[in-house]
């Protein structure tokens, strides 16, 4: 009380000013329409995030905005709310239908997510605002029909948008807002020509909002194409105590990846939902078939699957139907600045290889959906752990992958497997080409994370105790042949196409039956080995057998004192937990003394 009496007016005036820079204000303070405030309350948004506090007022003033904010910081609502506010305000005086806003996103999954956010935020003004998405695989006639009513908001990938603009199905004559979400990815996905064509058709005075998780040369390029002197918001948010992502790296051979991933999930050393990133589509099915040998259920996410199936997988994963997603991220092409320099150092021979590489890549991705992307934009909820089974090829891609966990104030964990150079191609049945430069990529990852005060900690497993499971790993891998992978891939695609196309109308009419449509069905390896689905007691560490702990959190290292005996299970949202404490190696002692 004395403190309040003794303070003068100056510090009291400064205190609110300090708080206003933090996401402490309410949505009602931002001057939004009461119907939007009501929808925000229904969605249980407590208070604006930092990017929302900064971007919404600027956008409402009509200024161009370029905002950089981390994944999971609320960027989608930060641009949707001012767009909705402008449309509602305009309709008070002019109710004639025309397209006011075009929202461009790099992937179909993100287009669907943005459309769902618009639907939730217009729950109390749905009659006044019509929004459509052009991400579904439908004919040009259907798209033209959707656009014939001049919807207020169109959500699309750049290629779909330009196709409809060029055919005069989509009119931009009275467009007032254009938004580019995940701006640093839009160019990386090969949309440069489409974006340039769209920019030429924009009327003068269109307000531009660019949202991105990083500020790259691609973002600078887009800023030059679309924006006129935008306000740049480079927002760095520090994690509160007990929040953020704990990062660990394990150096191991190629076959040990499969050994460790089996032990981690079969003994339930990681609790909660996980996303496992792999290098390519074949790798998805190899790992899924491998898991099935041990009775571990998982579902697959890759660019070959129909878009409806991919969206349903994400939706069911967020509801808790699935615990493990195996995702290929082959379209994530965000190179580091060092990468071009390294590729240019190898002389003529390396130059020839570099020239051949893009051709191979085009052949690989030509049959897949280039509008697919999983490591960016998609709102995966309550992910406890991200496992980089195959390390990405750049530090930036790594940052975006681990951004799937530790969101909305929760704790998360990222575990990455790295193949040392001397172990590359040492195990032909399981090696992949992308692991050749794992150690170089890891060095860049550590350097990049250090810039934001993050540490990538090494984890050394006690392989003597893990080796007891090695023969089971070998039995399972022998059953996962190339023929089995190819057949599983074909069978899964055929089944998902059937589910996506033939059953779509039925589930639209009967949404309550959606739970019958599962995506973690069992595939068939070369042979079935029922004994691998059960872990015999003699394989478990001695401590687990004594306590009768069984399958669950198993302390692999022998505790040396009372503090070490306190083992905690890892769950999303818990603070100061060490999810892999059981595998931490004992410190090495110098025997030569």
UniProtKB/TrEMBL annotation:
Domain Helicase ATP-binding: 56-233
MF GO annotations: ATP binding; hydrolase activity; RNA binding; RNA helicase activity
Predominant cellular place of this UniProt entry's protein: nucleus
SMART domains the record matches: DEXDc, HELICc
Database matches in SUPFAM superfamilies: P-loop containing nucleoside triphosphate hydrolases (SSF52540)
Organism the protein comes from: Cephalotrichum gorgonifer
EC numbers for this chain: 3.6.4.13
InterPro entries cross-referenced by the UniProt entry: DEAD/DEAH_box_helicase_dom (IPR011545), DEAD_box_RNA_helicase (IPR050079), Helicase_ATP-bd (IPR014001), Helicase_C-like (IPR001650), P-loop_NTPase (IPR027417), RNA_helicase_DEAD_Q_motif (IPR014014)
Protein name: RNA helicase
């Amino acid at each position: 009380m004395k403190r309040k009496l003794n303070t003068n007016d100056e510090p009291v005036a400064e205190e609110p000013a300090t708080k206003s820079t933090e996401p402490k204000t309410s949505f009602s303070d931002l001057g939004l329409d009461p119907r939007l405030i009501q929808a925000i309350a229904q969605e249980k948004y407590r208070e604006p995030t930092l990017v929302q506090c900064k971007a919404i007022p600027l956008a409402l003033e009509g200024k161009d905005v370029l905002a950089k904010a981390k994944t999971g910081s609320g960027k989608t609502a930060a641009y949707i709310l001012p767009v909705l506010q402008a449309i509602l305000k305009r309709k008070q005086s002019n109710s004639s239908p025309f397209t006011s806003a075009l929202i461009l996103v790099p992937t179909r999954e993100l287009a669907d997510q943005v459309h769902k956010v618009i639907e939730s935020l217009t729950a109390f003004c749905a009659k006044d605002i019509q929004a459509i998405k052009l991400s579904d695989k439908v004919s040009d006639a259907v798209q033209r029909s959707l656009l014939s009513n001049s919807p207020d908001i169109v959500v699309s990938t750049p290629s779909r948008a330009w196709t409809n603009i060029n055919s005069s199905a989509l009119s931009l004559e009275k467009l007032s807002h254009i938004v580019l979400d995940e701006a640093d990815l839009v160019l990386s996905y090969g949309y440069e020509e489409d974006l340039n064509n769209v920019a030429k058709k924009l009327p003068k005075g269109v307000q531009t909002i660019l949202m991105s998780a990083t500020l790259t040369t691609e973002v600078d390029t887009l800023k030059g194409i679309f924006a006129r002197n935008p306000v740049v918001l480079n927002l760095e948010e520090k994690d509160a105590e007990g929040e953020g992502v704990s990062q660990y790296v394990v150096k191991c051979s190629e076959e040990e990846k499969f050994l460790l991933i089996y032990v981690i999930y079969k003994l339930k050393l990681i609790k909660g939902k996980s996303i496992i990133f792999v290098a390519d589509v074949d790798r998805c099915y190899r790992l899924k078939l491998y898991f099935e040998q041990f009775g571990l259920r998982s579902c697959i996410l890759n660019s070959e699957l129909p878009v409806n199936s991919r969206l349903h997988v994400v939706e069911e994963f967020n509801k808790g139907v699935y615990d493990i997603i195996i995702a290929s991220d082959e379209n994530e092409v965000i190179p580091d600045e060092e990468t071009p320099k390294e590729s240019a150092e190898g002389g003529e021979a390396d130059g020839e290889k570099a020239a051949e590489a893009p051709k191979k890549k085009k052949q690989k991705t030509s049959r897949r959906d280039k509008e697919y992307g999983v490591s960016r934009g998609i709102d995966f909820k309550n992910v406890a752990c991200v496992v980089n089974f195959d390390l990405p090829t750049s530090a930036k891609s790594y940052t975006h992958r681990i951004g799937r966990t530790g969101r909305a104030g929760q704790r998360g964990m990222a575990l990455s497997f790295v193949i040392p150079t001397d172990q590359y191609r040492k195990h032909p049945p399981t090696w992949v080409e992308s692991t050749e430069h794992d150690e170089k990529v890891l060095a860049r990852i550590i350097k990049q994370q250090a810039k934001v005060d993050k540490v990538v900690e090494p984890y050394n497993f006690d392989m003597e105790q893990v080796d007891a499971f090695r023969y089971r790993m070998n039995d399972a891998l022998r059953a996962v042949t190339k023929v089995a992978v190819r057949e599983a891939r074909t069978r899964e695609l055929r089944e998902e196409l059937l589910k996506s196309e033939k059953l779509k109308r039925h589930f639209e009419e009967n949404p309550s039956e959606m739970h019958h449509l599962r995506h973690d069905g069992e595939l068939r390896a070369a042979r079935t080995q029922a004994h691998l689905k059960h872990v015999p007691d003699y394989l478990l560490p001695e401590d687990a057998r004594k306590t009768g702990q069984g399958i669950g959190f198993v302390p692999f290292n022998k505790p040396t004192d009372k503090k070490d005996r306190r083992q905690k299970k890892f769950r999303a949202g818990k603070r100061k937990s060490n999810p892999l404490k059981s595998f931490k190696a004992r410190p090495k002692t110098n025997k030569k003394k």
